[in-house]
Structures are given as C-alpha cells and as structure tokens.
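Box 3.1. Reading complex inputs
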Amino acid sequence: MPNLKDLKTRISSVKSTRKITSAMKMVAASKLRRAQELAESSRVYAESLSLILSSLSGGSKDNSDLPEVLVGRANPKVALLIINSSDRGLCGGFNSTLFRSAVAWIKDKKSKNIEVKLMPIGKKASAFYKRSDLEIIENFEDINSNDRQLEVSENVKNKISELFESQVIDEVSILYNKFVSAIAQEPTFKSLIPLEQSESEEGSEETTNSSFEFEPDKNELLEYLIPRNFMTQVYGCILESSAAEHAARMTSMDNATRNAGDMIDSLTMTYNRTRQAVITKELIEIISGAEAV
Amino acid sequence: MIELKVVSTQKVIFQKEVEMAVLPGTEGDFAAMPGHSPFISSLRPGQMVIMANNKVEESFFVSGGLVMLKEKVCEVLVDQIEPLSDITNSNFQQSKTYQELEGNDLALNTFEQVVNTPSYK
C-alpha cells in the first residue's frame, strides 16, 4: 500500500511543476506575439529587396555576366550550413527535428562529395555539434534581444562574404524553423549562395519585363545589394525562428500543464482511496478486537 | 500624387501620398514624382525631403539605402533615417541615428552638414 505521506509530497511537487509550466506558457505566448510582429514588419524590407534583386538579375536570361556570389560556382566542393536553433530548451521537438533534417542534409551533401562546414546559431546547435567531426567555423549564442539578432546577422553576413571571397566555401545554406502557425513549425532550408529566387512570381512579370533604369550601373548596384540581401535573409530567418521557438514552447508547455493536471487527478484519487483503506482497516481491527473480548 | 513608402530592416517607417519627394541618389539628387520612368538607385548619405506646393514639407536625414521607383510608387529602403524637425545644431549628436552611425565618418559629416546647411529648406 502506498505511503500516504509520500503521496502527499508527490502531489504538491507536481502542483508546483504545473505552476511553473503554466507560467512559462504565458510568458511564451506574450513573447510569441512580439516576435511575430517583429518578423512580420521586417518582411516588408526583405520582400522589396528581393524584388529589386530579381529585377536586377532577371533582366538578362544569360547568367554568365552575373557575379558568382549570386549564381554559385560550377563545381561546389565545400558547403556551409548555418543552423539556426534556440538558446534554451523546454520547447518540445523544436531543436531535435531541426537537427534531424540537418543530419539528412549533411549526409546527402557527403554522398555528392561535398564537404560540409557548420555555423551554429543558438546554444543548442553549438552544444549538439561540439563533438561532431564537422568543422565549426563560428558559433553565435545568446540571440534573445533584437539588437543582438541584428548584430548576429551582420556578423554572419561579413563572415560568409569573406569566406566565399577567399574560396573557402562554395555554397551557403541556412536551416531554420519556419513559423507555420502557433502549433506547427517546419524545418526549412534556404540557399543563400547560389541565391534562391524565391516567390517572385507575383512581381516577376511586372519587374523583369519593365525596363528599370539603374543608377549606378547593374554590377555596382549588385555589389552593394548582395551583402545587404544576405544580412536581411539571415535576419529574417532568425526572427522567424524565434517566433517559431516561442510557439513551440507555448504548445509544449500547454501540454505539460495539462499532463500535470491529469497526474494530480490520478494521484489525488490514489491518495483518497488509500486514506479510505487505512480507515477501513482500523475499523476492522477495532471491531474484531471488540468481538474477541 | 505618388505613394512614398519608407522601410527599414525592422519596420515600415511611414507610407503616405506625397506630391514630390527628393532623394539623395548615389550619382546625384533626384525627384520622385508620379509618372517617373521605372528606376532603381542606391542612396548616399544625405537629405531626403517631401515637397508640397514647391515648399519643403518634411525633411529627413538618410544614411544610405536603396530606392525602387515605379510609376505611382516610390519605395525607399533606408539604413538609418532621422526626421530633422526636432534636430538642431546643438542636439544632433545625441540622436539615436548619430550614435548608431559611429565610425562612419562620411555619414556623420553629412549628417552635420544636413543639419547646419541643408540643401533644401
């Protein structure tokens, strides 16, 4: 028979866990709203920028006059993967699904004889890859504040431009959790070098066909624009991933709170049954004692 | 009227209908007016103004960026922007933009110049 006192302490400890998880859920929910707003408002800039970029590069059908950093190198040997994880845990499968897709991606690259180097963002990714045999170029941690997010994207931009120039890397991709809805996140790859011409269908007809005039000329503008585009893309991914992180934490903490509630119910039930059994036992003892006399 | 949309990496700063806007392009100032031919340019640090009835209505300092000008829309992607209405010679060094631009001497000098002797007033 379970000990009554043990049951009681167990119940109270589960109760305090429930308090913690429900508080975390509330905090995540309010942070999610802020992160979502931020991601949304930064999207305008990114969209305009990629529209300009596609009208600059889309004008000519022939890719040969475009810079390498836009169209990529012919025989890539080294690929860089930027993995955008979270700094903290307790957010369900947020990081593990991300790493699972990273592992598959790396395997795929290896089968094509492409060496993979990594640039983890967030503590979880650096911890995960610390002991792997892949080369880590640089870690970025503590990406909680908005200023820091901007700073990190700036640094990432500088680093990849420098590495690409010096022929250390030939391809760059970024992996992040895309914010689909408050209950769904999706690990997503985005290619930065060569640049993915993303969802410009709506603007493509309008921009590529109309003849924009450029000032200064195309190549100079591209030179100015491409690094800026890296930064915006990376920044966008970081913001998106942070919104997704809060969403993941919110749902997993919601589940945890519910599970704790269920557990408290069943423990309370056991506690009451046990208490009743103890009383019954005592009564029987008294009655049988009285009969014996 | 032309729709002027000013955006930074973080947010849309403002979006409104204007008669004319003058922007500091890398190769010289230009005016954005309805019916302008499609045009893309980068910006140098300088003064951006919104004009109405041949008068300067609002004045800004921009530290650089890009413009995409279409027939009825002018999209300005700015790095940093500071409205000049509250900025005077004595307080411009305290402004957020000034502090963010630290180390970028060209932009800082232009900022000072725009505050003291604006090309459009």
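In summary: The interface with chain A takes residues 7-12, 25-27, 37-42, 66, 68, 75, 77 of chain B (CB under 8 Å).
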